[in-house]
């Protein structure tokens, strides 16, 4: 259970506030209270660490141009859930739409919350996005086994391409037995669009690992590769403790705009 308070300098308020005071979730009691600004105060304590990418990324076209109708529904739903959880009103959010809106919301949240609070907020958002009764039913019907791990892997490749991009199921070894329970994401869409190690780690990887384990009873270890932007999702494998996870020592990209412009915590 995480119970934290955030103190931020009150500069340039634009009128939306995170209010998750005394909210009950399946992870315990959540307490987040913060005021977000259009451009968070940058203390200078976050230095640009050595680069993990040698070239500046090209300016990307709108990330939502090629999404189909169902993908756009899923993206807008997740984006709205994250905004609602963070208390960001539609009038105060940016003019971006689709996946760009999701990235924009995530960037603004990451720049104003501590690392633990980022984990907590995403857990609350996911808790609201997925009906508890459905998750409980899945957890009951699919306890950890070779079959359930392979089903989770297949389900991920079919239903979450809109979030992470194209992926495929690959063979791996669990408890000395080979099975097809590893999802390989060729180039993670969220990591590519945010271009930020910190956001990948604290708004996706760690809270997703916690959520899937607690809600579905399925251990999962997500291992992003920050050189080629790929990621491995290994169902059935327990992740290391957060403090011992190699990503916690990973420097961000040389041209991380989120770090430089928004003070995103790494």
UniProtKB/TrEMBL annotation:
GO terms for biological process: secondary shoot formation; strigolactone biosynthetic process. GO terms for cellular component: chloroplast. Residues 162-243 form the Beta-carotene isomerase D27-like C-terminal domain. GO terms for molecular function: cis-trans isomerase activity; iron ion binding. InterPro entries: D27-like, D27-like_C. PANTHER family: BETA-CAROTENE ISOMERASE D27, BETA-CAROTENE ISOMERASE D27, CHLOROPLASTIC. This is Beta-carotene isomerase D27-like C-terminal domain-containing protein. It comes from Brassica oleracea var. oleracea.
